[in-house]
């Protein structure tokens, strides 16, 4: 094992600091999330009883997915707490002074911090991009069934592009029955209408093995052939139309149930259809990378703030660190909201907090002990 670490150029000092970093990070997650679970359970206990939620659903569908979701969501806070807590303890015990007295520079001291931050960065990205979205499906479904029953299940006046020069329109859609009313489908050639379909109802076939399978009822078609018009009608027709219910009825948190590749595919498809309400999906897509990268920035700030030995202990340092981490999370939320509600590019919006905190990290780094 020692030879393996030497091949990776990981010294005993590096392993010591990385172990302290990751150990404190996961311990802070366990401690704080455990408290959050207790408060959340106490807050929603009445609804669990009122709507007869099963114990299996509470434990496995909700809280088993609640823990990784919020652990990843507030990862920046846990990084700050971990770095400041164990670095301050090292400084109080004069261990950092002993390290630097051997000729170890502060830059060299940051190396294991960056390795630990890299491990957390990769972990948070993989969890947020591939693992957590799968669990969010059950968590959000549980919340809608037992906690937030007033979520939107209707939408009106939906128009989208389902194929090249093919436009679909639904006057009203009811998600409870997967049914739309007053449906029309228009096909154009050279910007001229050549075919028009109108149906009283259209229902998504949830039993079909293939996606995009719809059942049209009480329909009429009009084929426009120059000066001629061919009209036909029917009572029922099974057809495949390149659209699904989630394309025009966006439920709260839907973007959190898609993995990053699925999110990219969804955004590109909706853009091609001319669907405008995708800002939340774009913000989620860019935020997963920006939040993971922020671990490096916050690690530098935390290490720089707490590396100096102070007479008053970790109180002041921890207070400053918590203030900065809470401010970062608040700023990140505000910039995401600004991107959704204003005409602002989502990628730039979610990266603004990182750009600002890079300067804060540089200032703290310059003020760190040498």
Please tell me about this protein's structure.
With 370 residues, the protein is an alpha+beta fold. 61% of the residues lie in helices and 19% in strands. The protein has helices at residues 2-7, 12-50, 55-73, 75-92, 95-101, 106-146, 245-248, 260-272, 279-306, 315-341, 346-367; strands spanning 154-163, 166-174, 179-189, 192-204, 213-225, 228-240. The chain has a six-stranded antiparallel sheet, with no helix packed on it. A hairpin with a 4-residue loop joins strand 2 (166-174) and strand 3. Helix 8 (260-272) crosses helix 9 (279-306). It is elongated. The mean pLDDT is 83.
In brief:
This protein has 370 residues and is an alpha+beta fold. The chain contains 11 helices and 6 strands.
Summarize this structure as a short list of keywords or feature phrases.
alpha+beta, 11 helices, 370 residues, 6-stranded antiparallel sheet
Assign a percent range to the helix content.
Answer: 55-70%
The assembly state of the depicted protein chains is: single chain
Task: Report the structural category.
Answer: alpha+beta
Q: Which regions have little confidence, pLDDT < 50, spanning 5+ residues?
A: none
- What distance separates the N and C termini? 32 Å
Q: Biggest β-sheet: count, sense, barrel?
A: 6 strands, antiparallel
What is the N-to-C succession of helices and strands? HHHHHHEEEEEEHHHHH
Radius of gyration: 27 Å
Mean pLDDT: 83
Strand order, largest beta sheet: 1-2-3-4-5-6
Shape: elongated
Q: Strand percentage, roughly?
A: 15-25%
The helix count comes to: 11
């Amino acid at each position: 094992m020692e030879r393996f670490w030497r091949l990776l150029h990981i010294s005993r000092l590096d392993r010591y600091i990385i172990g302290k970093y990751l150990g404190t990070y996961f311990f802070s997650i366990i401690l704080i999330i455990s408290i959050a679970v207790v408060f959340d359970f106490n807050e929603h206990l009445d609804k669990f009883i009122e709507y007869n939620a099963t114990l299996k659903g509470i434990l496995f569908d909700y809280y088993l997915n609640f823990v990784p979701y919020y652990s990843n969501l507030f990862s920046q806070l846990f990084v700050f707490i971990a770095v400041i807590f164990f670095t301050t303890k090292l400084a109080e015990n004069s261990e950092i002074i002993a390290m630097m007295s051997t000729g170890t520079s502060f830059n060299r001291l940051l190396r294991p911090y960056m390795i630990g931050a890299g491990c957390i960065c990769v972990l948070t990205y993989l969890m947020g991009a591939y693992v957590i979205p799968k669990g969010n499906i059950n968590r959000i479904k549980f919340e809608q069934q037992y906690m937030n029953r007033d979520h939107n299940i209707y939408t009106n006046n939906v128009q989208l592009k389902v194929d090249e020069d093919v436009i679909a329109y639904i006057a009203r859609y009811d998600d409870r029955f997967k049914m739309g009313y007053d449906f029309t489908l228009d096909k154009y050639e050279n910007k001229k209408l050549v075919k028009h379909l109108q149906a009283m109802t259209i229902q998504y076939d949830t039993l079909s093995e293939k996606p995009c399978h719809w059942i049209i009822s009480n329909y009429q078609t009009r084929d426009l052939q120059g000066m001629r018009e061919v009209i036909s009608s029917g009572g029922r027709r099974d057809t495949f139309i390149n659209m699904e219910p989630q394309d025009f009825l966006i439920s709260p948190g839907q973007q959190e149930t898609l993995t990053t590749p699925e999110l990219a595919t969804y955004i590109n498809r909706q853009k091609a259809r001319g669907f405008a309400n995708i800002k939340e999906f774009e913000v989620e897509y860019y935020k997963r990378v920006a939040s993971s990268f922020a671990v490096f920035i916050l690690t530098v700030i935390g290490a720089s703030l707490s590396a100096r030995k102070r007479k008053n202990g970790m109180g002041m340092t921890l207070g400053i660190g918590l203030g900065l981490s809470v401010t970062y999370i608040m700023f990140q939320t505000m910039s995401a909201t600004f991107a959704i509600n204003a005409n602002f590019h989502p990628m730039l919006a979610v990266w603004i907090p990182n750009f600002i905190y890079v300067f804060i990290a540089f200032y703290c780094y310059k003020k760190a002990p040498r």
